[in-house]
Amino acid sequence: MTKALLSLFVGLLVTAASFAQTRTVTGRITSPDEPEGLIGVNVLIKGTTVGVVTDLDGNYSLQLPTDAKTLVFSYIGYLSKEEAIGNRSIVNVSMNPDTQNLEEVIITAYGTADKGNFTGAAVAIKADQIANRPINNVANALEGQAAGVITTSASGQPGSTPQVRIRGIGSVNSSSSPLYVVDGVPYDAAIGNLNPDDIEDITILKDASSAALYGSRAANGVIMITTKKGRKNKPTFNLKVQQGTASRALPEYDRVNAEQYYPLTWESLRNGRLTLNDEPSVANQFASTNLIPTLGYNVYDVPNNQVVGTDGLLSPNAVNNFVGTDWFDELQRTGNRSEYNLTFSGANETNDYYASFGYLDEKGFILNSDFERFAGRLNMNSSPTKWLKTGINLSATLSEGNNARDGGSSSFVNPFFTARTVGPIYPVFAQNMQTGGFILDEFGKKIYDTGDLVNLGLPFRGAGSFPGRHVVQETILNIDSFDRDVISARAYAEISFLKHFTARTNIAQDMTSLLNLGYDNTIVGDGAPAGRTRRENVRINGLTFNQIVSYTNTIREKHFIDALVGHENYDFTRTVQSISKQDQILAGNIEPDNFVTINSASGRTDKDKIESYFSRLNYVYDDKYSFSTSIRTDGSSRFFEDVRWGTFWSVGAAWNIDKENFFNFDFIDMLKIRASYGQVGNNAIQNSGGGQSYYPYQALYDLGFNNASEPGILQASLAARELLWESNNTYDFGLDFAFGKRFSGTVEYFYRESQNLLFDVPLSLTTGLNSRFQNIGTMSNNGIEFSIQGEVIRTNDFTWTSSLNISTFNNEFKKLPFDEQINETKKFVVGRSIYDFWLRDWIGVDPETGEGLYRAEEYNADDAATKIVGIDTLTTNFQNARFHFAGQSIPDFFGGWTNSFSYKGFTLGTLISFSIGGDFYDGIYARLMSSDPSGGALHTDILNRWQNPGDITDVPRMNTNLNANNTNVGSDRWLTDGSWLNLRSINLSYNFSREMLQKMKLRGASVYLAGENLGWLSSRKGMFVSESFQGTSSNTFTPARTFTLGLNVNF
Amino acid sequence: MKKIVNKIAILALVMSFGCADGYLDTAPTDAVSESAVFTTTQNAFSALNGIHRSLFIRYDSQGQPGEGGVMIMREVLGEDVVMTGIANRWFVGTTQWVTHRDENASDVRFVWRFYYKVIGNANLLIANIDNAAGPQAEKDEIKGQALAYRAWAHFNLAQIFGERYKMGGGNSQLGVPIVLEPITEGGARNTVEEVYTQVNIDIDAAIALLDDGRNAKSHININVAKGIKARIALAQGNWPTAASLAKEARTGFELMSASQLYAGFNDVANPEWIWGSQQIDDQGTFFASYFAYMSLNFSSTNIRGNPKAINRLLYDKITTTDSRKKLWDPNAATAALRDPFIDQVTLSNFAKRNFMNRKFVAQANASSVGDVPYMRAAEMYLIEAEASARGGNGTQAAQILFTLASKRDVAYTLTSNTGDALIEEIMTQRRIELWGEGFRFYDLKRLNLPLDRAGSNHVEAVILGKISEPAGSINWQWQIPIAELNANDLMVQNPS
Q1: Does residue A529 have a cis bond before it (omega within 30 degrees)?
Q2: Residues of A in contact with B128 (CB under 8 A)
Q3: Prediction pTM value
């Protein structure tokens, strides 16, 4: 809309002059994205000041003087175009968007800024960049799209939200997630509640000076989301329909089959006895005899003790009786995805409106995983008088769905863990051990084999494959669902007074009402045999109220001043009630009333409050020199009253070199250098479980430790009255450039230091507590970001635009409250990063014995497990293994490459995201490489195990006896290259031509085929390498690949 | 000038939106301020009840249900409780003598922090109770119980993490840090002797403050305190004290009848129980429960695939007329011979293994709720008998043993054993009577006996060759958890 207004303005000036006129030329201006006509385009006769602007339908009519030869069409945001008139009386033109967007307006905290004069670092993603992508969630749009922004990949759970980090990792025990700001105010609901189709602009504020006005909560960057507005045009009605499928994007790990599995287990048993010094013949016999008793199941038609003979080979007579031993076959399906969006928008001189309704229904590729969302939005603005502007953005979202239970990486109800880990000899459905064939129940149906059906004469499954549990049956019978209603409102009123002043107040409220339902069935699993129900009600209410006075003036045409001062308060309330009951009365009803015994009933309310005062001053001289400064002070309820106020400030400056008179390189369209420094605070302290800690300074006793019927409390925390804001201080240096009328880009360097790190410092356990919060520690992040975009090829019919971004970051602890802290696979020490792996030093396999070797911590001549090889002291005993730093999960560089090819009405868009370097610790693989599987699945790499003296391999021998020589424990054996490349998105669309549209009586229409997550390259098949920032794997819902056919129609 | 005035006015307007005093003061609703806890004795009782409750809550994982969890670990390190299958692996590493020797093991951290958590909460009461408003009698009751807890927890820590107490004193080997006040930094390890000295000071002070009154058996009264003192004296080889305190501790508690013996060991109302937790339905902990591992009937993967059995060698020592003999079924694997009670309370998918127990019964297949026994009169009889026998008073020992054994076995006659044979008989009675209740590791350690599982029904796949452990080896000391070594520069690890 801003563009249109500006154009109108220019146009009015232009048409002031008049000339002698002889003939009339008319025409219509369109563009690929506005086929219904571009309004407000300047049409000018070349070499004159004669011209007009196009009307609401993109039409123009112009009287031509006799000497007129060429028309010039110009429009902000589009490449100007010249057309020879010749003898034509109709000149229709299609204009192309200017991908350089040099005149772009940047959305900033509490306002906007001209990109040209902006002193900070920001990246904008526009609506058209995500328009045809079948994504459910705004955060999904960020992968690979912006330099300096690294994301995890969304899981395949419909409706899931990926994690985002901007410019490295900002904190250890406080949040490292960015702040989401929607229509100017921090958003207090899950970001998945926003309908991506409603979004006009996503701007990522990366540096502290641009984010500083969100000071208290912007320590990890800000993602500003602006929703759509009605445009000054005739009322538009848009319908978008998408239909698609969802399937598994990553293949499963390669696992051995039954034929390979029995001899491997046999070897484990045999070697286990050899370790206990049995004679080989005794050990072989032991293994043959005990193989089936250990594993339980014999899928072959030969006697138990003959499945694997004493020679260690599978019986040549063995015929496999069993079918259906791949549990994923029963858990997976082809999901489907339907999305419908209707929008209706328009505007006149004083009012604009935008209304939308969206419906999304996605079924994941795992049973019982789905997501359904109804999202409605109404955005209205009105200027009833010259001095008053007001508006309201109101959205309501209802979503509900079922979650696959992938929360616990090794929980028996987790479909990925269980189906992946169960050995290849265990059937999903009960089968006759001797003859094969399904055992049927009284109704003639197959029976889920829980691995402990002793009453059917079936054995127990081996210990490594969860006897008594059945993930398929549990997934079908259990319920884990949610029902979430969100109402989000943003309202403002703005009064202009005294010529240069405006006073504005914003009030925003985000309300979430969430009902989580859980049910564990009566037949199998955690709830059996009684049945358990759990329901949790969560109400979240975030209120932001601010008052801002601003002053804007241009003095003597060259001095532009923009200042503001404001006050804001934030009031957040979260109330939770939960109840859990067991002993289901009637089947089919999971309401609490249908259960007998209360297991727990609890509720609580948490409050989080912030009050802030802030001010900002921007000064621009002659569009050449820009200067920006801000200061903000915040008080947080999380800190003790004497220290709760923190003050944060920023400065920034930019110099547009290309505007200088001495600068006369025509090839360079723009050259700007800029620098900024700013501080932002972080109070989002997290407790050890990852939840927010709202009262970290208080010495507390926890309620809820009643002793039978007597009230009871337990010490929960120590006082921390000196605790104060964590501060993130960022230096940013940037160079923005544009050249050749085609390309633009940015190079940036940042140095970010998180000081007074809010650390959950471990206490000696003899204090009776685990840890306490302290502000000790400093961590730095620095990196280089580069992005370039432009048109590689442009001909009349064909254009190729491309955009590439590459970033790096290094993370380093500068100061810590302890010498070292081991944190699972990582160790924190000064001089290293938060994601440096600290693991046992795995050397390999002893070719003589087949035992795994680690570098030894200490040499002990009496210890038979240690030996000296060359100059190295090695040990087979993992408890004497030496730990060392072994790489880090932070990549060398990461980024994305976007391409768009247009030919006539066709456009092909691709997005490739990548991350190169860094290490990945694959714990899932480690589990699949056990030398004592006892019923658990094995990776095919185990086939390379050591078998005979002299074998050179990196896979130790199979062995049930792991007491000392455990080769499966955490070590750098499980580290692998963490590089990956993902063909994130492909999109082929076709825009109907004007002629066809006229026949159909439409203003615009396009069809498209879109795919997400089409191909993944990484160093191991099946590995979900972009699951987490810390570079470790877990049994989580792997990403979905979706294909969607879409239709987009404008009336 | 006018403009400046205007600006100031606007600024003043903006600032006037500043919030009211106290806007930023918040307080949790699921917790209370520490300062409010010690204002009155009534509030302080809540903090004491929190300690009682802390004995049966879930710690970091489901195999860590407070004292019940440590009791299981102390049993599976011995030879008398047999794990009949790997099931879902809980406690398998401990039965193999691996887990407790691993400084990184979560179970090791749990045991250490559990007892120190009890000490920390007790110390807050001890430090603050004198200033609380309330009757002196209540202050004494609170302080007495807190002191008893402090003694009990230090005593357990010393037995687990320290080298054994060598009877006769002079124990300069490393014990555990003594903590006597609220601290924020960890200290160095005290010697075993120092720990026992402090434990005695605390338990004596507790006995002086307590009487036999209490609201519930989960509380510590003078009987419990004296029972703890008897245990301490037994471990120190202080026979006369052990015998006399044990006797005083059981005063007023009747031995249970044969029918009560089969009631499941899950009810604190049992007349024989001196001290035990009391769990009610809405305080259930699902799989984090003593009964989720030790009972025969709770439907957990662990119990379905690994019912706990008695060492058959010990079982064979039980006389056929002993009513305790039926607490285990030597023929459970054979349906026709099985004790019908087992089929009655389990489901079809439960493994039935020979010598499995029916001693411990959970509330239901789907409920692991149950009271956990911490101290029974029978134990006090056994302490008195053992201490008397070891102290040279065989006649008295035999008489005390008779009181207990004849209650269990109607055919039992006064023993004619004397000397070592009498002590052996008492120890056998002790193993049978207290099976599964968390004593075996302590007994082996304090008496400097080896672990010997040879010839028993222990399952090879579970113990992986762990048949024996020589007496007094370094493996009898648990490793100090890595978390403590990381956070406490003064901490010293046990030898490995």
Answers
A1: yes
A2: none
A3: 0.88
What chain A residue is nearest to B3 in terms of C-alpha separation? A498
- In what helix (H) or strand (E) does residue A728 lie, and over which residues does it extend? strand A726-739
**What ipTM was estimated for this complex?**
0.94
Residue type, A10: V
Among all residues of chain A, which has the CA nearest to that of B371? A708
DSSP state string for A415-465: HHHHHHHB-TT--SB-B-TTT--B-B-TTS-B-B--S--GGGT--PPPGGG
* Coil vs helix vs strand at A594: helix
Q: DSSP string covering B478-492, please?
A: PPPPHHHHHH-TT--
Q: pLDDT for A303-358, tens place per residue?
A: 999 999 999 999 998 899 899 999 999 999 999 999 999 999 998 888 999 999 99
Helix spans in A891-966 (H): 923-927
Q: Residue A671 in contact with residue A657, Cβ under 8 Å?
A: yes
C-alpha dihedral (A858, A862, A863, A869), degrees to nearest 10: 70
Contact B311, B453 (CB under 8 A): yes
User: How far is residue A89 CA from its own chain's centroid?
Assistant: 54
Which residues of B fall within a CB distance of 8 Å from A566? 14
Q: E-strand spans in A834-992? A: 836-840, 842-845, 852-855, 866-869, 872-875, 883-888, 893-903, 906-916, 919-921, 975-977, 980-991
**Strand extents, DSSP E, A75-110:** 81-84, 93-94, 105-108
Q: Which amino acid type is present at position A116?
A: G
User: In chain B, what is the greatest distance between 2 CA atoms, to the nearest angstrom?
Assistant: 114
Angstrom distance (rounded) from CA B291 to CA B163: 30
Nearest to A766 among B46, B186, B367 (CB): B186
How far apart are alpha carbons B290 and B372 in whole angstroms? Answer: 7
How many angstroms separate the Cα of A600 from the Cα of each of A516, A578, A582? 15, 8, 10
Report the 10 Å Cβ neighbour count for B18.
12
The tokens of B5 are what? 């005035």
CA distance B414 to B399: 7
DSSP state of B16: T
Query: What pLDDT, in 10s, does the model give residues B79-119?
Result: 999 999 988 889 999 999 999 999 989 999 999 999 999 99
Q: Which of A223, A76, A239 is closest to A161 using CA atoms? A: A223
Low-confidence ranges of chain A (pLDDT < 70): 1-22, 33, 76-77, 98-106, 109-110, 215, 233, 963-964
Q: Which amino acid is at A312?
A: G
Tokens of A631: 């200061």
**Which residue is associated with the tokens 């390309």?**
A743
Q: How is residue A682 written in tokens?
A: 């972080």
CB contact under 8 A, A600 and B282: yes
Asked if B33 and A718 touch (Cβ cutoff 8 Å), the reply is no
| Cα(B288)–Cα(A213) distance, integer angstroms | 48
Handedness of CA B265, B268, B270, B273 (dihedral sign): positive
Q: Point out the residue among B3, B13, B46 whose CB comes nearest to the CB of A711.
A: B46
Nearest CA distance, B325 vs chain A (angstrom): 27
Averaged confidence pLDDT in chain B: 94
* Of A529, A609, A764, Cβ closest to residue B299: A529
> Residue B119 contacts by C-beta under 8 Å, 6 or more apart in sequence?
A766, A768, B149, B150, B153, B154, B179
d(CA B410, CA A299): 53
Signed CA dihedral, A345, A346, A347, A348: sign only: negative
The per-residue DSSP string of A123-137 comes to EEEEHHHHTT---SS
Shortest distance between the Cα of A414 and any Cα of chain B, in A, equals 15
pLDDT tens per residue, range B252-268: 999 999 999 999 999 99
